[in-house]
Amino acid sequence: MRSVNIGIIGLGTVGGGVVHLIQRHHDDYVEHYGIDLQIKRACSRSDGEAQKLGIADIFSTNWQDVTSDESIDIVIELIGGEHPATEIFEDAFAHGKHVVSANKALLGRHVEHLAKLASENGVQIKCEAAAAGGIPVVSTLEHDLAGNEILTIAGIMNGTTNYILSRMAQEGLGFDEVLADAQRLGYAEADPTADVDGFDAASKIAILASIGFRTRVNTDDVYTQGIRNVSATDIEMAREFGYAIKLLAIARNTPQGVDVRVHPTMIPATHQLASVSGAMNAVFVVGDAVGETMFYGAGAGSYPTASAVVGDVMSLADHIAHGKEVIPESEPFGHNLPIRAIEELHTRYYIRLTVEDKLGVLAETTKVLADDGISISHISQTKSEDTDTCTLIYMTHTAKESDMEKARIDLEALDSIRAVSSIIRIEDIEAWTEGAFDN
Amino acid sequence: MRSVNIGIIGLGTVGGGVVHLIQRHHDDYVEHYGIDLQIKRACSRSDGEAQKLGIADIFSTNWQDVTSDESIDIVIELIGGEHPATEIFEDAFAHGKHVVSANKALLGRHVEHLAKLASENGVQIKCEAAAAGGIPVVSTLEHDLAGNEILTIAGIMNGTTNYILSRMAQEGLGFDEVLADAQRLGYAEADPTADVDGFDAASKIAILASIGFRTRVNTDDVYTQGIRNVSATDIEMAREFGYAIKLLAIARNTPQGVDVRVHPTMIPATHQLASVSGAMNAVFVVGDAVGETMFYGAGAGSYPTASAVVGDVMSLADHIAHGKEVIPESEPFGHNLPIRAIEELHTRYYIRLTVEDKLGVLAETTKVLADDGISISHISQTKSEDTDTCTLIYMTHTAKESDMEKARIDLEALDSIRAVSSIIRIEDIEAWTEGAFDN
User: Fold this and answer.
1) Residues 6 or more apart in contact with residue B173 via CB below 8 angstroms
2) Cα(A126)–Cα(A111) distance, integer angstroms
3) Among residues B97, B104, B204, B246, which one is catalytic?
4) d(CA A332, CA A211)
5) What predicted TM-score, i.e. pTM, was given to this entire model?
6) Burial of A119 (0-12, 13-18, 19+ CB in 10 A)
7) What ipTM does the predicted assembly reach?
8) Which residues of A form the catalytic set?
9) CB-CB under 8 Å, A304 with B289
10) Cα–Cα dist B361/B379, whole Å
11) B198-218 pLDDT tens trace
């Protein structure tokens, strides 16, 4: 039996979990799979973690010691960011090594370039951990659902924002207050931008849509709006109307192109995604044959993410250990589907206006909406207790995003309007299964 | 490019779906995967379906024409049952062909024998469709979660019974009435035994536990109880106590051995499995590293099941088309874990007694339970409207199954008791994650 040799770059939370899992399962892998996994080299900025993990003897602060080590078969890249991660991929490929990575920022923007390089060098990129942490969605899209045309990939792909929205809903608290507490508890970073502004979810849906629809969707193609503007009032009003508010990442493969976006979304309170709470993730995948499926689990964290990394390592190792060739990376992005502009979106909207408490405001705002082609399904008006303002809630019928945007500008121009406080899209969940076969 | 040649045996609902998917995706597979899938032979009892599918020219009523065809790489077995399915597997292996199958009855009982034969012949068995229809759980357990020790596999694995229980809950109807309607609508077979008595779910959990725990769990090892005895009253009472009743298949990898069983189960109404309604399936998988995951989708039906079959075919074809060797079936059942007897189960119980409406019955029944070591947490007593009986509901603290069984016999011996109408286990969901790493 030949050993399968691993080099690992990045020994943070996930890296430590990976080393621990590989050490723990070593004998089991030998016995059950005939795979002898050996960590040959490890690299990080300083050797503290390597000491703790008992791998100081194979430690280096120079990543090239890993990528250029002739004995190594698989490089695990866990440092994140674009540089030197890009150079690590490139150098690993040049040395004929496969790369397993959790780097969503890099892959969301540059997977095309990297996949091409991998292919040219006859090696593979595996990135299960980059999409939904421990939930095996990449593998499912690449392999298990190959008998399907994938119609929709949508769900909760960021644990921090779901944690914040869940606590806002449960405790009636405001965004800032919960964010501060989440930071204190370690659920949110000191700089929370990547999470709360939706960029993390945008990278993930870009990767999943690229694989699922076999077309190139770049992170920059994803319309992205975070949750900073969602208020306790919005969540409470949503509940009254039978909805929950979640930060959804949505990618739909439509005849007009790929509709791909991340934004706060109202979904029916009875929908399965509405009951996904705390830091958990859940991804809906709709295939024309299989219909609606959902995959639920931890989207982040040391061991869940390490589980995905090790799954990828083992799928490569299964071949290497048995002397079989790994099939090189193919470029599955041939479809070249157009990306639909957000302005073309047709959906329903929830609108919260803060208006002066006087007669005629309702008529005035309703007229603006009508003039801009926005048809209304429900209106709710609440007098604020300690101010001279009212809260006006409109729920609309299906309208066009560009019309809604014009209406927003026109509403803001009205003297009696203090603020267009929120506009939240109400997702048409039924549309997710459009194109599925009857069964 | 060399074509990958398929022989298909069984052209029923699923077989028709498989042929359709392979025909439909042919060009896409060539373009994106470099795989040219060709259906070379098809076999069924009569040629009606083959005519409809436009494959009458490759049709035979003799399955040996498929298994012995030298050009064929992969045999798809979709006839179900033990014979001649066993002989089909054996003959296919002898001719060096891989087998993809949805045959849960066969694999639940004989996978060990068949896996050994496949291994000896250097070929593979793939059976994603045998476990949870379209939901890719087998592949997830075999590959993606390889970095985990699997602790629990549990869920709703039979669509017919979930459909019946869902309608009973929604409409307050009795089992017989809903079953008859389900049969009329095609959700239940004319002979509903395999579904409503739990045997179908037992086969599936046997297969999943064998793969997940890498030990042999035979269908006959699974304690199995169906839903015939669940009444509208039980469902209503469960709801009052905050529970839903679902037919769960549960396999837990405990230090005392494999706890594996199928029975009606009370779970908290807020649990994700409680909201899985209609004919849908959902499987919880808990791994020590990844923690809690759930996989949701259609567990049966033509296209969902065909999706799983084609996924398996493609994973084999990916190697064959590129001239790479498929790794032969390995025997992953080495752990030889003991199976825990149901009598050793410790859980909470719901007990519904139909008793005479007279003073002293409560004291009498409570004493029997106490004498048998069953501690009570809640009691509810309801006078029946049109009879001289009362309904007594007990919810117990954790008790031992063998004590509960003794209590049942002792209760039935009481003069004042008309019937021990129901005993339903209340699942300890918390225990499913015992042994998972802290994160």
Assistant:
1) B167, B232
2) 11
3) B204
4) 7
5) 0.95
6) middle
7) 0.93
8) 204
9) yes
10) 13
11) 999 999 999 999 999 999 999
